[in-house]
Amino acid sequence: MIRLKSWTAGFSFITSLTALLMAVSSSAYTTSSAPLNYRNDTQMNEFIDDLMSRMTLEEKCGQLTMSAGHWNNTGPVVKQGGLDDIKEGRIGSFLSVYGADMTYQLQQVAVENSRLHIPLLFSHDVIHGFRTIFPVPIGQASSWDPDAVEEAAHIAAVEATASGVHWTYAPMVDIARDPRWGRIVEGWGEDPLLCSAMTVASVHGYQGNDLSRSDTLLACAKHFVAYGTIEGGRDYNSGEVTERTLREVYLPSFHAAVDAGVETFMSAFNDIGGVPCHANPYLTRGILRDEWAFPGLVVSDYTGIKELLNHGVADTREKAGIRALKAGVDIDMLSDIYNELPAAVKAGDLDISYIDEAVRRVLVAKYKLGLFEDPYRYCSGKKEAQQSLTHEHRAAARELAEKSIVLLKNNNALLPLSKNMDSVAVIGPLADEPHSCLGSWAAAGKAEDAVTILTGLKSHLPDTQITYVQGCSIDDDDTSGFAEATNAANQADAVILVLGEHRDMSAEAKCRTSIDLPGVQNDLAKAIIATEKPVVVVLMNGRPLSISWLEENAPAIVEAWYPGVEAGNAVARILLGDVNPSGKLPVTFPRSVGQIPIYYNHRNTGRPFDAADTYTTRYLDSPITPLYPFGYGLSYTSFAYDALSLSEAEINEGDSVEVTVNVTNDGEREGSEVVQLYIRDLVGDTARPVRELRGFKRVFLLPGEARTVHFTLTEDDFSCYDAAMTWRVEPGRFQIFVGGNSVDTLSKELLIKGK
Ligand code: NOJ
After folding, report:
1. Shortest CA distance to 17 belongs to which of 606, 687, 722, 604?
2. Quick check: 94 and 120 in contact, CB under 8 A?
3. How far is the CA of 629 from the centre of ligand 1 (A)?
4. Is 453 a domain residue?
5. Total of domains in the chain
6. Is 302 in the pocket of ligand 1 (CB under 6 A)?
7. What single-letter DSSP state applies at residue 232?
8. How far apart are CA 201 and CA 398, in angstroms?
9. Residue nearest to atom 1 of ligand 1 (CA)
10. DSSP letter string, 496-539
11. What is the Cα–Cα distance from 256 to 219, expressed in whole angstroms?
12. Cα-flanking dihedrals φ and ψ of residue 555, to 5°?
């Protein structure tokens, strides 16, 4: 079971909302102790002390500066003058430069031609695979399988490090409650516990337990913090968040990353209540370093320091740089402002200790990676060729894709389809679109490696006649292909209709005011479903879509997300019953954009919905319930829950309780179920969420097999912030729920008695 007992511990640092508001908005917040020499490694510290004693101020600022590679037809290249910058010590790290040859050449310039021979750090966005592309993170989260997510991160690390990459900007651990925000695709969904579990798994997968190994790299928890609160779901916008929500919803996954040993953090683009995260010492020094004792590196987001000018919190580049550095941002990604800071130090506007502290962290990271020992250990052409897109890596990508697929609807057990069909029509603009199979952050992935759904179906149905018609494009209003599509449908035994969003519609800066199927795809669905053929809708998208019409009218719906390089094989194996779907939604699906924000762990309100009473919380034109709730997903078999029991009906504050439930596979196929445990604190000092996930387990059951599933709930699981923001258990009544999603559950009441 995934239980993260410590992810909320120690949050009583600021004890009142007033104090928080003062701290968040005060740039004068100072840390009590600059964590110099914070790593307990004498040899390393002596090495770094010696190196730093020989560095000029300019060379120090160079270590804090990250430059970017860009791409031409042959691969990554550095900017004009970039090689001179390396030689003169003005660059300490690179973004988006990879490839064994390229990184070897640049490293050689740094190590052989710069005065102090300090190796470079190469970073890249390896978000859901490097060359072998796995499902996008929101898809991976749908697996509720941290072990599989860890393996995916490990494989990505193996491939990326062989291509010279030392540092990935993953995992993104932002909670997302707004599907208009394109970056919802990059995260683990809406729940703090699920998000924390996936975060821990992926940090372990990337970093392993020894960073000096040549197949592990630095992970990065991003974007610190509350990026998902941006107003209107519009990227880069301002956010507002209360202390309670910050600490209960947005911070736990970051804290989990620290506890898992993540080496780096990235600041978020947004401001919170007017304080940009790149200039917020309360967050970066106060919470991250002082409360959580994070010893690692903090990197800015892309030009995030320069953007302090646009935010309007600095009127010169130098002041922006000083604010960011003082706030705790160690590396300047792409603003090229930290290289200007020597003047501020010489003018007495910046204490050199801020620079020294940040430089030390950069050098520690390089040391831990083993780069001072062997700067070329990560750029091996041989390994790059041998370890890229191997058969085993593809198999792991396919298995995770299979686990990430969510069966949303299956009327009259239409699925799985028979393998003996004479003819199948495959229709839709995403049925044969390889780029969208890969998803939004495809790193070194190549479209030609991707198995599209059409290709996958053809190889899994060798004796079936398969007709493919695109029908329409993704986002224009041309319906001229409908006739050919309906004609193909009419002649087929079954139709597989592949709809959704192009991968570039769900990503950074790809926000939408509508979350309907784009273009005329819904009309295409209407035309195809009107043929009355058995129609299976397969969705490829990076955000929850409002698909109420499909839910009412399509016989079967499968959410595939962007499944990765093995998309077609995974989808085919699910549709044809080689694999029983087991994915569960990590995020609520609204009925319409008007319900946003909608999430399962909301509070009850003073007037909960009552159909018989107008003056209760409601809409005039829509139910308030989601289309599909958090944790939802069907299977080709069915699971019955019974005998929910607690080891005690009453416990004392501080004690634990055992929860057991029987889960039986009462269908005819083997399958996996994700058993979910939620709690509700029925009466608290403050209004508590109606449900909060506190544990989950994936169980595999043969037909007819039953299993008793155990959970242990501890003091931490029952704790929350009281009205004075003290983290504690509030004695009283709790409801415990267990089931296969956040709505359909058994429940029992527990009484916690005060001391
Ligand atoms: C901007 C994005 O916000 C961040 O997630 C990414 O890691 C950097 N660009 C680097 O590509």
Report:
1. 722
2. yes
3. 30
4. yes
5. 3
6. yes
7. G
8. 18
9. 302
10. EEEEE--GGGSSTT---S--SPSTTHHHHHHHHHTTTS-EEEEE
11. 13
12. -65, -35
